[in-house]
Amino acid sequence: MYKKIAAILILSLACLAFTIRDAVFTGGRLKISANKRYFTTSDGKPFFWLGDTGWLLFSKLNREEADKYLEDRRAKGFNVIQVMVLHTLGVVNAYGDSALIHKNVATPLVTARSSFDDKTQYDYWDHVDYIVDKAAEKGIYIAMVPVWGSNVKSGGVNQHQAKVYAEFLAKRYKNRPNIIWMNGGDIPGSDSIKVWKTIGNTLHQFDPTHLITFHPRGRTQSSKWFHHENWLTFNCFQSGHRDYKQDTSKVDLKYGEDNWKYINSDYRKLPTKPTFDAEPSYEGIPHGLHDTLAARWTDADVRRYAYWSVFAGGCGYTYGNNSVMQMHRPTDKNASYGAKAAWYDAINDPGASQMGYLKNLMLSRSYFDRVPDQSIIVAAKQGKRYNYLIATKGKDYVFIYTYNGRSINVNLGKIAGDKVKASWFNPRNGEIKAIGTFANTGTKAFKSPGAVANGNDWVLILDKV
């Protein structure tokens, strides 16, 4: 009997090893750039994090649906999907398979490994493996949140359980190159901080080559609690879903919709670590989340958050959609935050496609020399809130973003060269329109196309001639 069990276990491990070797993935493990501001692929090429919050991907979608979702995101340019491994301690997947025994993270419900071609015999973790490997085939990284913060806050996970569970995860996925660890899950780091440190340290101990961060509560940033932890290789923040008027939180700083301020804060911290907005306002979600009759965030808002944070020095950006993040179906009885559209329709909402234009723009010029530089904009004309202009530059180029198409007053001479070629980049469709060539000295005003109105956003590009 024991020999038979041992044989099954050996076969299971062999199948696992075969699957890992068989996964096609050319990106390799992500690394931190030499200047500690950005990500690179394993061969040193620039990696701009373009994420999507597919939070319930593992639990709600079957394999065919997961394939459809991942292929859509690949086609639109997304290269990271943020996913909860355990949304709740009683979570089951689309096939009714439970993740845990008795809702205990220290006892994952793992059965003998079976073939991915056999759609009748596999467990929760096999399904996770399948999705991770399918993402690898499409060049997509999976940012895995081990257990959502509310489960820890409620007392469902103690330090001992957290250590056992994190070791299980690290050993299971350490050989898959397309893994990123995203500790936490919509929770302040100060809440159950010993558990979060245990998970972070354990993941790092048993899987030292994958990047690790912490996903915090809205309007907070990982650096507030964990910047100096050895396991935290990069920072992220959640600028959240509230508008200017709604940001009455009792955190140290109230930034409202000015998510670029979080970047500014992290940018000054030592040691230097990459940072970005890992959860801004979602397309199609109500302002403030809970009042389903409130105005909803649009693709224009999504773009504004993206360009503001990236031009401030962010190493990427994570998009979100109300229906997609919860994989909403018309048959769901308890939709969160007033979601109505089916996820398979909402994947085509305009903001998702528009994110690819930002990624293409950032990779179209020299990458690792890019820095934020507000001195490019005449100080008195920088503006506030929706009028805010934000600038970034590399050695031979300048990008300046306006959300509402207002005039941009530029201090020239901030990059080398006697002349600059100016053009307009349209964040709504990715098109570029030439303006002309100008002397690279003094100041000059550039009037954006169209009338001044929120959502008439443009990027002014200045290239060295």
Helices and strands, with pairings:
Elements: H1 2-22, E1 31-32, E2 39-40, E3 46-47, E4 49-53, H2 57-60, H3 63-75, E5 80-84, E6 100-101, E7 104-108, H4 124-137, E8 141-145, H5 149-153, H6 159-173, E9 179-184, H7 193-206, E10 212-215, E11 220-221, H8 223-226, E12 237-238, H9 260-267, H10 299-311, E13 316-319, H11 322-325, H12 343-346, H13 350-362, E14 371-372, E15 389-393, E16 397-402, E17 408-411, E18 419-425, E19 432-439, E20 443-446, E21 458-464
Parallel strand pairs: 4-5, 4-13, 5-8, 8-9, 9-10
Antiparallel strand pairs: 1-2, 2-3, 6-7, 11-12, 14-15, 15-16, 16-21, 17-20, 18-19, 18-21
Helix pairs in contact: 3-4, 6-7, 9-10, 10-13
Describe this structure in words.
Helices cover 28% and strands 19% of the residues. With 465 residues, it is α/β, with parallel strands linked by helices. The protein has a six-stranded parallel sheet with strand order 10-9-8-5-4-13. The longest helix is centred in the N-terminal third of the chain and has 21 residues, at 2-22. The protein is globular, with a radius of gyration of 23 Å.
Q: What are its keywords?
A:
465 residues, alpha/beta, TIM Barrel, Immunoglobulin-like, 2 domains, 6-stranded parallel sheet, 6-stranded antiparallel sheet, 13 helices, globular, disordered N terminus
